[in-house]
């Protein structure tokens, strides 16, 4: 990385995956928090035009190490790789994309239903550290075989009795006639930080500015903004009925029997909330997504 010498010493550095499953969502998130930067495939790094930060594009397997070593201050990577690396980095903020789980799976016709039955067997995985720890913690003695890709074909090849592999929809398991019998780890894309950088006065200020933006986007994605007309008589019930409601704004309308209510509703209670509101006589319900939210 000889080009690194061009990077600005006053800037913080963020490593993201160069080309893979997390790349597009990560770039989109960086743009949503207002960062302007060039990005095209051949680049090793970008300099943000409107924020004191440089972005490095690397293989996801290297991100935890780069952060731990202080080559970069921050990284965005799947938690699965942070755990596997065993590097001392700070897990700062989960980002709610790149969801997947590391699961133990066996051939459907094997008849194996519990991990205890794997005692003495070969288990193939790209996550040997996490896998070995998982079985050791349960006092199950297995032989962990490290494979870098296509782990799911190893049972058919007779190489392993079971696998430990990343699953998101499960379609790859089904395609290979495998079934999951246990869950090792749940993962999502996560911002991680170098501990020295986080303790550094100057860097911490820039990092906190960035994290505030990320938190604003994360909070917004959990809420919908709802505008509606509510019969004045049922207004007092509204806040007692819905736990997801956040500081509603109540405005009079031209008709004294009706009030206009604007509020944010948590996504997970959204549908229940809308049904309740309709029962209370709410009309003209308009729902929109929130781009950013600071509370
Ligand atoms: P690189 O070239 O950067 O090493 P890779 O091929 O190792 O990339 P990807 O397949 O792009 O990695 O996966 C990146 C991350 O996406 C994984 O570490 C994991 O956190 C997440 N992920 C989400 N769903 C899945 C899935 N079904 N299989 C694998 N990874 C997934
Ligand atoms: Zn990788």
UniProtKB/TrEMBL annotation:
Gene for this protein?
Answer: hisG
Recorded GO cellular component terms are: cytoplasm
Q: Per the record, what are the reactions this protein catalyses?
A: 1-(5-phospho-beta-D-ribosyl)-ATP + diphosphate = 5-phospho-alpha-D-ribose 1-diphosphate + ATP
Any keyword Transport?
no
> Any idea where this protein resides?
Cytoplasm
**What does the activity regulation annotation say?**
Feedback inhibited by histidine.
The UniProt similarity line reads: Belongs to the ATP phosphoribosyltransferase family. Long subfamily.
Q: Which residues form the Histidine biosynthesis HisG C-terminal domain?
A: 220-292
Keyword check for Amino-acid biosynthesis, yes or no.
yes
> A Gene Ontology biological process annotation?
L-histidine biosynthetic process
The EC number(s) given in the record are 2.4.2.17
Top EC class for this record: transferase
Reported cofactor(s): Mg(2+)
Keywords from the named record = Amino-acid biosynthesis, ATP-binding, Cytoplasm, Glycosyltransferase, Histidine biosynthesis, Magnesium, Metal-binding, Nucleotide-binding, Transferase
Sum up the protein's function in the record's words. Answer: Catalyzes the condensation of ATP and 5-phosphoribose 1-diphosphate to form N'-(5'-phosphoribosyl)-ATP (PR-ATP). Has a crucial role in the pathway because the rate of histidine biosynthesis seems to be controlled primarily by regulation of HisG enzymatic activity.
What is the protein's name according to its record? ATP phosphoribosyltransferase
Q: Where is the ATP phosphoribosyltransferase catalytic domain?
A: 59-215
Q: What GO molecular function terms would the record report?
A: ATP binding; ATP phosphoribosyltransferase activity; magnesium ion binding
Associated pathway: Amino-acid biosynthesis; L-histidine biosynthesis; L-histidine from 5-phospho-alpha-D-ribose 1-diphosphate: step 1/9
One Pfam family name from the record?
HisG_C
């Amino acid at each position: 990385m000889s080009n690194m010498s061009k990077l600005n010493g006053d800037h913080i550095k963020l490593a993201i995956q160069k080309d893979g499953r997390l790349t597009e969502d990560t770039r989109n998130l960086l743009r949503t928090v207002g960062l302007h930067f060039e990005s095209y495939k051949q680049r090793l790094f970008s300099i943000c035009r409107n924020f004191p930060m440089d972005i490095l594009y690397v293989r996801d397997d290297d991100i935890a190490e780069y952060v731990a070593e202080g080559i970069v201050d921050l990284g965005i990577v799947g938690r699965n790789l942070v755990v596997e690396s065993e590097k001392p980095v700070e897990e700062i903020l989960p980002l709610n994309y790149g969801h997947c789980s590391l699961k133990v799976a066996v051939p459907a016709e094997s008849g194996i239903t519990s991990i205890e039955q794997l005692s003495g067997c070969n288990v193939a995985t790209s996550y040997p550290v996490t896998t070995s720890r998982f079985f050791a913690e349960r006092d199950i003695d297995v032989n962990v075989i490290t494979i870098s890709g296509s782990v799911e074909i190893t049972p058919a090849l007779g190489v392993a009795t079971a696998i430990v592999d990343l699953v998101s929809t499960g379609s790859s398991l089904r395609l290979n006639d495998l079934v999951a019998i246990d869950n090792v780890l749940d993962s999502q894309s996560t911002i991680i930080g170098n501990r020295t950088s986080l303790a550094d006065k100057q860097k911490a200020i820039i990092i906190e500015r960035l994290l505030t933006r990320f938190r604003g986007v994360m909070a917004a994605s959990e809420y919908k903004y709802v505008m509606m007309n509510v019969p004045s008589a049922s207004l007092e019930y509204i806040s007692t009925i819905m736990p997801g409601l956040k500081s509603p704004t109540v405005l009079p309308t031209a008709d004294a029997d009706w009030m206009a209510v604007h509020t944010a509703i948590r996504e997970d209670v959204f549908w229940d909330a809308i049904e309740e509101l309709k029962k209370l006589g709410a009309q003209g319900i308009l729902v929109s997504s929130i781009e950013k939210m600071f509370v």
